[in-house]
Amino acid sequence: MHVLAQADLRLDANAVDYLLLAFYFVLVLGIGYLARRQVSTSLDFFLSGRSLPAWVTGLAFIAANLGAIEVMGMSANGAQYGMPTAHYFWIGAVPAMLFLGIVMMPFYYGSKVRSVPEFMLRRFGKPAHLVNGISFASAQILIAGANLFLLASVVNLLLGWPIWVSVILAAVIVLAYTALGGLSAAIYNEVLQFFVIVAALLPLTIVGLYKVGGWEGLVDKVTAGPGGAEQLSSWTGNQLTGFGSNFLSVLGLVFGLGFVLSFGYWTTNFVEVQRAMASKSMSAARRTPIIGAFPKMLMPFIVIIPGMIAGVTVTELMGENKEALLAGDAAGSGADFNDALLLLMRDLLPNGMLGIALAGLLASFMAGMAANLSSFNTVFTYDIWQAYLKKGRPDGYYLRIGRVVTACATVLAIGTAFIASTYANLMDYLQQLFSFFNAPLFATFILGMFWKRMTPTAGWLGLVTGTASAISVFILAETGVWDLPGQGAAFVGAGAAFVVDIVVSVVVSYLTAPKPVAQLAGLVYSETPKATRTHSTTGDDAGWYRNPGLLAGIVLVITIVLNIIF
């Protein structure tokens, strides 16, 4: 990115754009200040006092995932791979979001746990709880750093400030509102940020399509360019997976991305689950991920398509430059696919609209980082500090610790931002992290939730060996022992982590003693009475349009249709 700034490709923002940006930042900090007045207990700070309506938590659920990596990374993938990137939404998100709402949310919300690691504590005991708490906290710091690096890159391109100055400034703004108002501030800002992001990306898509001559024009230009017509159909996605075989590519997408990585992320990642846990009722908690799935399945049209347009209209990403980037070499322009969205904004948007677009980008970065920070501070405070280091202190003590931990996490994220800066496509980095942290957790979780014989020892040993196997695949790919280009290493690593975790868990379970069945109510599906897995259909939860099952069915049908069309 710094090469771009040196090459004088800075975005041509004027006073109107800066005024819009300043207004946005004042609004964000104002929401943090107002939310602070609602925070009197640690539950208010970490889980919004479980008081928010489903539409708020639903939009926050999706905005928490619309971080810098999602918006910039998916548009980078759009420029690099084209329509196969839609798998991250239609295969790699929506089915798992529906599963979370229908099957898993009753366990999370019904057990009144404050975090995913706390659920692990009740099901498997302290060793699994500690392993999960530490691995989750580590992942959030690494992912927050990636969000922070992209945010800094935009400020660098916009103002020409050095990356390190931009990183610190961006971190201070996110820290200010997250430390002030806790989860409520993060969630209300995420709802605002969702609308700002859509207001930024929708005009960019429309103007971009107009420039290339509509969808037909885009099809012609992509077909004639490097990558060819393969980039126009989401299946089989060989470029994305890195596999030459259609069968292996589809298997990698459906099993590696669609099952292991996707379900691992959406159903056990506390960043997302925390938003649903802040809902005011069981029905609202179940509807949260399902409401989020509606905008999620339409996101490719305002995230991936601008990337594809950039790949055929932005000089730095066209022709020989694109061929060089696809071959893994540096482009002569100094640009890379991560720059696709910024360069498209530079080329297409007039002043005023550019300010809104920049606010949308900054909103996406801050939403992602704030989600990382608010989930990190909850897990660290409840699951590490309170559980193992300082037990039995007054509630006010943990509220203060939560704010201090938020500040410490921000400092650590500044450090990990420089790890993220070494990746040309940050989506590769993110999928790699998910294969380490999320895939083994999902295996442990799903086996423990549906198999009452699984033992506490199997819980933590499965997690450790699953993570180790994913890291082993990564090392083999990095050292050239296995040739796994694209995101193949992440898909294979996720599959290995899942299989190893399941096998180890089953073997260890038969060699060790299980928990008494009486202790498994609310934690294992077969031992939980149906009455506690269902929700009220009266009052605020009445009406067919609030039925989680019906809403999930509608989303599923539309998603299947989109997969067939594209």
Highest CATH level, the class: Mainly Alpha
Protein structure class: mainly alpha
What is the typical, i.e. mean, pLDDT? 83
Strand content: under 5%
Could you tell me the number of beta strands?
A: 0
Can you tell me the number of structural domains?
Answer: 1
Overall outline: globular
End-to-end Cα distance: 32 Å
Strand-and-helix sequence, N→C?
HHHHHHHHHHHHHHHHHHHHHHHHH
Q: What is the CATH topology descriptor?
A: Sodium/glucose cotransporter
CATH homologous superfamily placement: Sodium/glucose cotransporter
Q: Counting H and I runs of at least 4 residues, what is the number of helices? A: 25
CATH architecture: Up-down Bundle
Largest sheet: none
Helix % is over 70%
Report low-confidence residues grouped into runs of 5 or more: 1-9
Cα radius of gyration in angstroms: 23 Å
Q: Could you explain the architecture of this structure?
A:
The chain is 75% helix and 0% strand. It is mostly helical and 566 residues long. Helix 7 runs parallel beside helix 13 (246-268) and helix 10 (163-212) packs across helix 20. It has helices at residues 2-6, 15-36, 42-47, 54-63, 68-81, 87-90, 94-110, 116-124, 126-159, 163-212, 214-224, 238-241, 246-268, 270-277, 282-298, 300-313, 319-326, 340-348, 353-389, 395-420, 426-450, 456-478, 488-511, 530-533, 548-565. The model is unreliable at 1-9 (pLDDT under 50). The protein is globular. It is a multi-pass membrane protein. The chain crosses the membrane at residues 18-35, 55-76, 88-109, 130-155, 161-180, 192-210, 247-268, 289-309, 353-380, 401-423, 429-451, 458-477, 489-511, 549-565.
